[in-house]
């Protein structure tokens, strides 16, 4: 794994914020060996523009709440709400409408790169509770 500790922290925090807003198909891709400009891509999808923007807002808020605050150096695509890119230097966040996610298939484009495991904490809790018979 080539991502820095900071990139890992940002990616996991952003992924959880996206999951909290019901993002779909959340994937963190370690692109550090392939790109000099960033360590990781976070990909997330939503079925409509309003939800895409809500996910973006939640990610920005969560990264600003970190002890070492993070603000994007670049933000693109917000007006259309179909594909918003947030560039945090260490990570680049792509929140896409489900149709754009399927059409552009960034997952397949970067398929040779390793992924960074992410499990939604709420899903993990639910599975743990179900496994314990609660």
UniProtKB/TrEMBL annotation:
The gene is rsfS. GO terms for biological process: cytosolic ribosome assembly; negative regulation of ribosome biogenesis; negative regulation of translation. It comes from Micromonospora endophytica. InterPro entries: Iojap/RsfS/C7orf30 (IPR004394), NT_sf (IPR043519). SUPFAM superfamilies: Nucleotidyltransferase. The keyword Cell inner membrane does not apply. It is found in: Cytoplasm. One of its GO terms (molecular function) is ribosomal large subunit binding. This is Ribosomal silencing factor RsfS. Functions as a ribosomal silencing factor. Interacts with ribosomal protein uL14 (rplN), blocking formation of intersubunit bridge B8. Prevents association of the 30S and 50S ribosomal subunits and the formation of functional ribosomes, thus repressing translation. Belongs to the Iojap/RsfS family. Interacts with ribosomal protein uL14 (rplN). The keyword Cytoplasm applies.
